[in-house]
Write a structure and sequence with these properties.
The chain has two domains: about 150 residues, Medium-chain alcohol dehydrogenases, catalytic domain (Quinone Oxidoreductase, Chain A, domain 1); about 190 residues, NAD(P)-binding Rossmann-like Domain (Rossmann fold), CATH 3.40.50.720. The chain has ten helices and 15 strands. The strands form three sheets. Strands 3, 4, 5, 6, 7, 14 and 15 form a seven-stranded mixed β-sheet that branches. It has a six-stranded parallel β-sheet with strand order 10-9-8-11-12-13, with helices on both faces. Strands 1-2 form a two-stranded antiparallel ribbon. The longest helix has 13 residues. The chain is globular, with a radius of gyration of 21 Å. The structure holds NADP nicotinamide-adenine-dinucleotide phosphate. NADP nicotinamide-adenine-dinucleotide phosphate binds next to helix 2 and helix 3.
Length: about 350
């Protein structure tokens, strides 16, 4: 895929039912889009992220956002360089962050730069890809979940993080350790568990695939003899149920994601008329009555609702990065054509930390 005069895109070719596979995607050649009017600018993508929640929109969408269209490019986080411009705001050579991943080129417009979350980034602050990682959605999500949703208590909380070796999870683990908490993570291999303890410095990690999802509760009982104060939930399902079993009274749960259920097609089934069309058959928590008796707070959140703390986040995160107190492991796939492989890999445990695709 070397031809610079062709604008490649990754399209959704068919809707996944069950595990997402490579043949759900297709690489499509297109013309490079042309600037049409004042305010237009052409961007060549350099990086894109793959994010597990996109699986929901590949199948059926949610109440709040429609499913991806078939035979159209997917969308997702990206960083690119402006290479042609009729805009007074975005000049040739500017680097921008937006939601137009899964393609090589795209046209931005001044007028909808806010709506489409197109923003300029300063490449002198940090490597470009950091703006999809520690200084972007990954870092911000971990920060919001711990500090804003769960009001982490410095030096006091016993914290459990699922998908702890993933992007958001590994940052959440490190932030909780910076604040002097006892931190335990779950992950899908012994190697990841060793990495979490030896390299990220958390107190304990276990391989949930080895112990089996029905034994997570027993494992948590063993490693949290005094109970869990804060659970950062990236995966939902049996992990959430096991954590609820072991939460202390007035415990807090940040409901960040449900990766264990994204491949479950009953999970998010709203049609384009906003009607629920199928029921969930997910392995969700069956013990919510404990949330009442233990006065738990379980709160879902979306990182982008919390831009009020963006300055605080940027200042703290930049400082911890400069002091080498926080790092983000990356799994990088080379070439846009490998974006489907990167996405599928999110669900089979083959990625560590943040998963990115280097497009150019
Ligand atoms: N609320 C928000 O604003 C927000 C923002 C960003 C992301 N999120 C959500 O936060 C979660 C983490 O995001 P991320 O981008 O950092 O992804 P991630 O955790 O890096 O996702 C990939 C990892 O998920 C784990 N995984 C895959 N299938 C699993 C299963 N069945 N059960 C348990 N773990 C499984 C795998 O690790 P193992 O090998 O350890 O299984 C894999 O490496 C996702 O659910 C995402 O949708 C939410």
């Amino acid at each position: 895929m070397e031809n610079e005069s062709i604008g490649y895109e990754i399209h959704l070719k068919k809707r996944p039912i069950g595990p997402v596979k490579l043949d759900h995607f297709g690489l499509v050649k297109t013309d490079i889009p042309q600037l049409k009017e004042e305010g237009d600018f052409l961007v060549r993508n350099i990086w894109m992220s793959v994010d597990p929640f996109l699986r929901i929109y590949m199948a059926s969408g949610t109440k709040h956002a429609a499913a991806f269209e078939l035979n159209k490019p997917l969308t997702g986080g990206c960083i690119g360089e402006v290479i042609e411009s009729k805009s007074s705001k975005f000049k040739v050579g500017d680097y921008v962050k937006a939601n137009f991943g899964w393609r090589k080129y795209w046209i931005g417009k001044d007028m909808d730069s806010v709506e489409n979350s197109i923003s300029k980034i300063d490449s002198t602050i940090a490597p470009l890809r950091s703006f999809l990682g520690l200084l972007g959605i990954t870092g911000m999500t971990a920060y919001v979940g711990l500090f804003k949703i769960c009001n982490l208590k410095e030096g006091q909380d016993a914290v459990f993080v699922s998908s702890a070796a993933g992007g958001v999870g590994s940052v959440a683990c490190q932030l909780a350790k910076i604040k002097g908490c006892f931190v335990v993570g779950s992950c899908g291999s012994d190697e990841k568990a060793r990495w979490l303890v030896d390299k990220l410095g958390i107190d304990h990690a276990f391989n949930y695939r080895k112990i089996g999802q029905y034994n997570i509760s027993e494992e948590l009982k063993r490693v949290f003899p005094n109970g869990i104060d804060l659970y950062f939930d990236n995966v939902g399902g049996k992990h959430l149920e096991a954590a609820i079993d072991n939460m202390n009274t007035f415990g807090r749960v940040a409901l960040c994601g449900t990766t264990s259920q994204y491949n479950d097609d009953g999970n998010a089934s709203y049609n384009n008329q906003n009607k629920k069309v199928t029921k969930s058959n997910s392995d969700g928590p069956s013990n919510l009555s404990l949330a009442v008796s233990h006065r738990l707070k379980l709160q879902g959140f979306i990182w982008s609702d919390h831009f009020d703390i963006l300055n605080e986040f940027n200042a703290n995160m930049s400082q911890w990065i400069s002091e080498d107190r926080i790092r983000l492991q990356e799994t990088i796939f080379e070439g846009l054509e490998n974006a489907p492989k990167a996405f599928v890999s999110l669900f089979n445990g083959k990625t560590v930390g943040r998963t990115l695709v280097k497009i150019d």
